[in-house]
Amino acid sequence: MSHPLLSIDAILEGVDIDAAAAEFHRLSTVEVHEAAVVRPDGRVRLPRQPRKDAAIIPSSYRPHVLASERVLLWTTPHGLNFQHDLEQLYPESIVLKMFFVMIQSLDEDTRSNYGAGLLRFTQFCDNLNIPEAERMPASAELLSAFLSNAAGSISSSTANSWMAGLHYWHTVNGAIWNGAESDLLRHLRRGLAKLVPPSSKRPPQ
After folding, report:
1. Do the beta carbons of residue 15 and residue 97 sit within 8 Å?
2. What is the dihedral of CA 51, 202, 194, 134, to 10 degrees?
3. Residue pLDDT tens, the chain, 205 long
4. CA distances from 75 to 71, 81, 88, 185 (A)
5. How many whole angstroms separate alpha carbon 56 and alpha carbon 43?
6. 63 vs 40: CA distance, rounded Å
7. Using CA atoms, how far apart are residues 162 and 205, in angstroms rounded to an integer?
8. Distances in Å between the alpha carbon of 57 and those of 130, 162, 187?
9. Are strands 44-45 and 37-38 parallel, antiparallel or unpaired?
């Protein structure tokens, strides 16, 4: 059974945030398996059945939602603990509003791009049986292994988008980010830039 979920953009545009947060909490108290998104124009968008190359191991941490909703609705044990700790300090309505306002820093296209990178990171971790607790905070070594695995098949801009999305996902979940000051990652990203696939290179002008 699917449970409809209001879109983040639709909720926040011209609507009382307190009321929206309460509605979000009401809907999210039930385990979410699939989320429908109601657009501001009234159209409903359902997550499509994942393509074979977009499949992940089913998990209660990762409901089947649109790519643009993953950075908020996909979580980890660390993320759940972070939310629990916040709720011990502040009213639940304040915590929910904080997440709503934070997600507004990104437009939907950016959230979708970040969600695509989060999917690839999840697939990589699934394939290597990386424990949930080690996926966040992700170590510099795990992030480096993830990027190096894609070397030769993605462009530098795609790699940068993936890393920015993972960084944002960590921020939303109150996790430290180990990708900023890592010499390993810095040199790996330079090497990856030299291994971009021919299809990603611009023809000479």
Report:
1. no
2. -30
3. 344 444 555 544 554 556 555 554 544 443 443 443 444 444 444 555 656 677 899 999 999 888 999 999 999 999 999 999 999 999 988 988 888 888 888 999 999 999 999 999 999 999 999 999 999 999 999 999 999 999 989 998 999 999 999 999 999 999 999 998 789 998 998 898 888 777 655 433 3
4. 8, 10, 19, 24
5. 27
6. 23
7. 28
8. 12, 20, 31
9. antiparallel
| DSSP reduced 3-state for 154 | coil
Contact 133, 45 (CB under 8 A): no
Q: Is residue 162 within 8 Å of residue 120, measured between CB atoms?
A: yes
Q: Which of 90, 104, 125, 122 shows the shortest CA–CA distance to 172?
A: 104
Angle between helix axes 140-150 and 108-127 (nearest 10 degrees) is 100
Tokens read off for 149: 């695995």
* Sheet containing strand 37-38, strands side by side: 5-6, 37-38, 44-45
Tracing tokens 């480096």 back to the chain, one arrives at 144
Residue 108, token pair as written in the block? 């939907």
Joined tokens for residue 83 = 């939310």
Which residue is listed with tokens 């209660």?
60
Tokens of 121: 């990171």
Answer whether the bond into residue 137 is a cis peptide, omega within 30°: yes
